[in-house]
Design brief:
There is one protein chain. The chain is 33% helix and 25% strand. It is of the alpha+beta class and 384 residues long. Bound molecules: acetoacetyl-coenzyme A (CAA). Acetoacetyl-coenzyme A binds next to α2, α7 and α8.
């Protein structure tokens, strides 16, 4: 049977970064709480001119060529920081990237989970149409609010994955299992810019959904944890992922792979829908121990709650599709002070009576939101 899976994977982050040791100092908290207790180092900070569209477009532009744009017939964008109640952010991205017109563009929502659903939708779409390509984007800006319990776990960024037949990075195994439970651990009402969070309850839900779904997965597929070289988990903050992994009784090698899989997340923070895939990118770019044929187990968790377990197999030559200087790029982002973070991350667009915005910051990124004009978002692209 033809293999289907991830052929290319791209990442976009905003330019600014806040060190958590600086945040800890400003909040009068022992820095070890953030760096050891949560196992986080820094968070990516998006200015007003960056949103899920600009970040999603940038992550996609980093991997797509003209042939891809001519064959993509579906764009699925998972997010929980939507910019419009009606128009899908994927439609803007379709336009900004110049993808051929006969494509479907949609947005999916279920907290941090929805991009994993998008990946399986892409898999099934390619199964029926092996010549087409699907662009799956996970794009989010995670804001919990100043001095909130979740503040040190914020972040911003996007992952783009091109799903095709005969993929060159990861073949999906088609063994997905899911669980839904109606709980109030984290949610964001329409009238609120920040989520409501029952923080400690959410951490228990994350782990309980993982263990119960893994028992179901094992039963259904007659597999055990030993079948996997590595486990990638949703990473709201790295310690949460480690607690989840340990609840499955991993081997020392699986714990080593986990430490490789959180390196990017520790420097970026939570990017909600993209966090699981950022962790996968970190694993395959940072691990020297993995090889083609290795099986990887994925755990996606979205509060509310829906979770999913599925697996994939690394494809021969996968390392040729990756970047070797990503940690260097992370280290070269522009550091921002706590005072500037409080301004940049939390300022909002002011709209006048006619639906026009006040001036937005000048932004040299490949894609930027430059204005709101009569309630219409206006984007600028520097890509041909
Ligand atoms: N030195 C070292 N470690 C320290 C320390 C110090 N001085 N002070 C505290 N710690 C440790 C604590 O022992 C704790 O570690 P353990 O859990 O291993 O014991 C850790 O630091 C955190 O301390 P607290 O639990 O006291 O921290 P908190 O209550 O202020 O905040 C939180 C924790 C509630 C999870 C908060 O970060 C939060 O609200 N986060 C947002 C919600 C979230 O991410 N939930 C995850 C599951 S839900 C999900 O996955 C979806 C999603 O993306 C949101």
């Amino acid at each position: 049977m033809t293999q289907i899976g991830i052929d290319k994977i791209g990442l976009a982050l905003p330019e600014y970064v806040l060190r958590l040791t600086d945040l800890a100092k400003a909040r009068g908290v022992d820095p070890d709480k953030y760096t050891l207790g949560l196992m986080q180092e820094a968070m990516a900070i998006a200015p007003l001119s960056q949103d899920i569209v600009t970040l999603g477009a940038q992550a996609s532009a980093a991997i797509l060529d003209d042939d891809d744009k001519a064959h993509i017939d579906m764009i699925i964008l998972g997010t929980e920081t939507g910019i419009d109640q009606s128009k899908a952010a994927a439609v803007y991205i379709h336009g900004l990237l110049g993808i051929q017109p006969f494509a479907r563009s949609i947005e999916l929502k279920e907290a941090c989970y929805s991009a994993a659903a998008g990946l399986e939708m892409a898999y099934n779409h390619i199964l029926a149409r092996p010549d087409s390509k699907v662009l799956v984007i996970a794009s989010d800006i995670a804001k919990y609010g100043l001095q909130s319990s979740g503040e040190p776990t914020q972040g911003a960024g996007a992952i783009a994955m091109l799903v095709t037949a005969n993929p060159r990075i990861l073949a999906l195994n088609g063994d997905n299992v899911y669980q839904t439970r109606d709980v109030m651990d984290f949610w964001r009402p329409n009238y609120s810019p920040y989520p409501q969070v029952d923080g400690h309850f959410s951490t228990l839900q994350y782990t309980d959904c993982l263990t119960t779904t893994f028992n179901y997965y094992k039963e259904k597929h007659a597999k055990s944890l030993e079948d996997f070289a590595a486990v990638c988990l949703h990473i709201p903050f790295a310690k949460q992922g480690l607690k989840g992994l340990r609840a499955l009784n991993p081997s020392p090698a699986q714990e080593e792979r986990f430490m490789e899989a959180i390196r990017y997340n520790q420097q970026v923070g939570n990017i909600y829908t993209g966090s699981l895939f950022l962790s996968f990118l970190s694993l395959i770019e940072q691990s020297k121990a993995l090889k083609a044929g290795d099986q990887i187990l994925f755990y996606s968790y979205g509060s509310g709650a829906v979770c999913e377990l599925f697996s994939g197999t690394l494809v021969q030559g996968y390392e040729n599709l990756l970047q070797s200087n990503r940690l260097e790029k992370l280290a070269n982002r522009t550091p921002i002070s706590v005072a500037d973070y409080e301004k940049v991350f939390f300022e909002t667009i002011v709209i006048d009576e006619e639906g026009n915005s006040s001036p937005l910051p000048n932004d040299p990124s490949p894609f930027a939101l430059i204005a709101i004009d009569h309630h219409k978002r206006i984007y600028r692209s520097m890509i041909d």
